Amino acid sequence: MENLLEVAGKIKRIEIQGASNVAKAGIKAFAEYIDTTSFSNKDELVSYMMKAKEILFKTRDTEPALWNCLKLIIKTVKEASFESEQELKKLVWDTANFYINQIKDAKVKIGYIGARRILNGMIIMTHCHSSAAEQILIQAHRENKEFQVICTETRPKMQGRITAQVLIDAGIPVTMVVDSAMRWVLKNKAVDMIITGADAITSEGTVLNKIGSRLLALAAAESHVPYYVATPLLKYDTETVVGNLTRIEFRDPEEIWKREEGRPPNLKFENPAFETISREYIAGLITEAGIFAPELISLMFEKYYNL
Ligand code: RUB
Q1: How remote is the C-alpha of 2 from its chain's centroid?
Q2: What CATH code is carried by the domain that includes residue 277?
């Protein structure tokens, strides 16, 4: 339990960030917790799994990849025909590893598929830090394509710096701009394409991603620049098809202006972490199943996953 709580804390404090990394870390901690827990039958195991799931579900509001994987592991265990502790623990590990590998493999496939859209001489813009978007850029670079990337700072937590560092380390030329220069860049820098990640996708094909993503999409529409979203299918929020809305996480004002920096005590803050990008602003989702229109997400998800 100690390790599970520690990982949950890291996810909550954004020390582990990006939906894919959050899902992988959460699944691993979940499986480790079960491995170190004793139970005498399947019902008891399921009650431990529900407890662990609740802890991980509460860490962040906008993480369907993690939720889907935990639900799929629990479903697999419930359907198992055996009861012994040893066999059930093995099943949890095997299923957890299966979904961790699904996320890893999806990213590799997304890299190959997305890289085909990158041509020599292009300028590509991104926002925040997405390991899926990054994979496309790195794969294109491995294929000896010459292109440049423009990335935003992504306030308040500056995840754009992670993107910049990773791409620079890979040998890709990167230029950084402040978030409020998004539109200026699109008007003045001949950007050919935008690629960001996603935190969640609804049944209507609306993408949720880091705050600023919709502004970027609107500015892209004005400049006729295609906006692609690199995402594993597991980001589909299955709850949206039955009417539930994907929640948007609101974060601590400390991220914007710290108390110790002398912020006025009666100053109010709004700090939404994510926002929606409607399907009409998205040229396509780049997934492990190919590139397709965002509204096809539920069909494609159901082809791959049975939840
Ligand atoms: C990260 C963010 C990323 C998506 C996709 O936000 O919005 O674009 O999570 O990431 P935060 P990936 O830093 O608040 O987690 O492609 O790695 O799953």
Answers
A1: 25
A2: 3.40.50.10470
Residue 20 Cβ inside 6 Å of ligand 1? The answer reads yes
Cβ of 277 closer than 6 Å to ligand 1, yes or no, is no
Q: Is 23 in the pocket of ligand 1 (CB under 6 A)?
A: no
Q: Note the pTM of the prediction, 2 decimals.
A: 0.94
128 belongs to the catalytic site = yes
Q: What is the pLDDT of residues 101-134, one digit of tens each?
A: 999 999 999 999 999 999 999 999 999 999 999 9
Answer whether 247's CB lies under 8 Å from 239's CB. Answer: no
37 lies in the same domain as 117: no
CATH number at residue 92: 1.20.120.420
Q: How confident is the model at residue 83 (pLDDT cuts 50, 70, 90)?
A: confident
Residue 232 has phi, psi (to 5 degrees) of -65, 150
List C-alpha distances in Å: 253 to 157, 258, 263.
Answer: 11, 7, 10
Q: What is the pLDDT of residue 215?
A: 98
CA 73 to chain centre: 19
Let me know: does 23 contact 70? Beta carbons within 8 Å.
Answer: no
Domain range for residue 141?
109-305
Last residue of a domain, one of 108, 124, 151: 108
pLDDT of residue 5: 97
